[in-house]
Hints:
The protein is mainly beta. It has two domains: 3-86, no CATH class; 122-397, monomeric porin ompg (Porin), CATH 2.40.160. It is 4% helix and 49% strand. A twelve-stranded antiparallel β-barrel has the order 8-9-10-11-12-14-15-18-19-20-21-22. It starts with a strand and ends in a 5-residue tail after the last strand. The model is unreliable at 1-107 (pLDDT under 50).
Amino acid sequence: MARLPIAVPMSRHPGRGMGERQEDLQTGRVRGIGLSAQRRPLMGILGRFKHKSIGVEAHPSGTQLICCGDESRSAIVSIASHDVTKTPIPRRLPRVRAPILALATLCTISAPAFAEEPVPEDRIVYRNLTVARLNPLGLLEFLDVGYQHRLFASKNPLFKDNFASLGARLLLSPAFARMAAVLRVQPLSIMQFFAEYELGGHFGTFNFLQSFPTANADYSDTAIDNRSDQGYATTGSQIAVGGKLQVKVGPIAARSTARFVRPDYDLEDGDQLFYDVTYDILMPDRGWTMNKDTDVLYVSDFGLVAGLRWTMTKAFIKPSHFVPYSGDTEGGPGTQHRLGPFFAYQFYDKPGAAFNKPTALLIVNWWLQHQYRTGQDVSQAFPMIILGFIFSGDLWSSGKKS
């Protein structure tokens, strides 16, 4: 019968020597730990040990298990089990992980983040995103800083990454600037709700802001350029509410983010809509617009994320937005759809670091439906192209983790 040495922390049996821990082959009992090994499956025995990890190595007397616990010292003892001679044990036991369920807390164009490390009870975190966009043209700097509190401790992947957070966000571009207060509540790892209140304004640069009296106005790139003398500076506020869902099983992840936006800007007299360069749509002032991003992604174990993104944007236009109203609501901004590949590469992940998760991003989306980008003003063969760089980090954490 093969002998199977197992490392057991010495701190549990102070003052005992190696000889006192050797198995009594007649009774099948391991002295000092009171564990009966006679005619029990090997894994049943191992289940009694609360170690962090188990490695396997060959040993002259049989197969050796090295159990790594919290204690720095360990002693080798031997046990016998009839299953050892019947079932060969591989040189290394595979590391098995349950499917990880998580929700990305970055903005919707970022690479997904799936929390596997212990979550601090309290922390101050930040994230930074720089984006350049083509069709339409845009440049955006995004900085989000917030205090995050874990709602409850759990080791279940479905509940582990829970929190409530309150923070501030800065959006800055050559055409506008906004500062927002942001509240997020994430009761489950796969579900998050958020509410935002923004204050900001347009500088009057790059032909923005341009507003219109009716929903059937021409807001194509050509029309915006031709009306360059009608862009003006203004200020206002904006409310946004929404939610995120994300699930990851094995290397496949799916996520969807829905955002409902209600702007309130000081427009020129008689105007009730404006062209929003962020969502590339004619947006009703003091009315609602919805944007939804849905991703299906392959998440590799070496930092690459690749998949497809579908984006839908819809402005909720009322009959009163058409001036003069004749019962015909044709010619409004309608619903927009675009679809294309999503690529991101995360260079490294060091949980708790002040500078972490540097990630390069590329999104190429073709317009499937748009009032002006499917051949009317811009060729449908010309996609929206987004290049970005993202990083985040912990500015402070309580040190209490679950």
